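STRUCTURE REQUEST FORM
Protein name: Response regulator transcription factor
Source organism: Dubosiella muris
Requested output: structure tokens
Priority: standard
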Amino acid sequence: MKTILIVEDDEYIGNMIEAALKNEGFATWRAYSGSEALLVFQSRPVDLVVLDLMLPGLSGEDVLSAIRTVPVVVLSAKSDLDHKVELLLQGAVDYMTKPFELKELVARVRVHLRPVDATRQQTLRYNDLALVQNEARHDGQTIRLTPIETKILSALMQARDGTMTRTALLDTLASQDVLMSASTLKVHMSRLRAKLKTLTGTDRIEALWGIGYHLS
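Status: completed
Returned output:
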């Protein structure tokens, strides 16, 4: 089941979108501000974002700039062509002008979630582990990862001998617009280790005291 993050501060509109998506078999998360949207996106599995631009606090444009790993469908009352082009160039996969038909929104969401051809999917492999989009795979089994967990595992899989210092890992995440402290990294790493242990039956990430982490 695909999961959609709905970022809309108007509760009535958000409820309508959520009902339409759930009616078509999608799971949903809700966020009512830009800051809340990024918090949800970084901590929970998300396949696509439906993003309203007029948000309290952090703007929809700022949220769009921070999300690079999943499709973003923008909703806006602005119909100016130059504004649409700017947002599409900024990274949005689609732009719908309010008011819109819910059936059309759902159809566009489906189009943007169509499976990518296998030859175009980027697959990372390390020993018997594979990472495809936001999924870790092992021996025919799959487990979903959050966007941050995906970035952490990707970095370790691409590191020499699967080993990274804590500083290097934090710098790699920062280069992908994920800023966190060492203590926050430890929390995400703990969750990732638990998921990989569930997937493979063994503890695959070793904490190297005073150094960093090693993926086996």
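Reviewer notes: The chain has a mean pLDDT of 87. The longest strand covers residues 3-7.
Form closed.
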